[in-house]
Amino acid sequence: MQESPYYELILQRGIEQGARETAIKNISAVLTTRFPDSDIHTATQALEGFDDIERLTQLFNTALVTPSFNAFLQAFDR
User: Fold this and answer.
1) What percent of the chain has pLDDT over 90?
2) Which one, of 43, 16, 49, 48, lies nearest residue 30 by Cα?
3) Which of 22, 28, 31, 75 can pair with 62 through a Cys bridge, CB separation 3.0 to 4.6 Å?
4) Cα 29 to Cα 33: distance, rounded to the nearest angstrom
5) C-alpha pair distances (Å), 69 with each of 6, 7, 49, 53, 58
6) CA–CA distance, 14 with 62 (Å, rounded to integer)
7) Whole-prediction pTM value?
8) CA angle (56 as vertex; 53, 59 as ends), nearest 5
């Protein structure tokens, strides 16, 4: 059975949305672990504004190595 183009589009969007949500969740988990006294909620809200999975991946990598929570927040501007 051949799937319709509309079905394929919806499926692709669902996959992308799931990847985006997972990336945001992973970034938040790293930040919470590394900087437990910081306002991670603020960063998570800002991350919700990103749709680009590649950019979220870059921010995840930054969260892993950044020296401070403030340095991570500055990475949003790059």
Assistant:
1) 73
2) 43
3) 75
4) 6
5) 42, 41, 18, 21, 15
6) 26
7) 0.85
8) 155
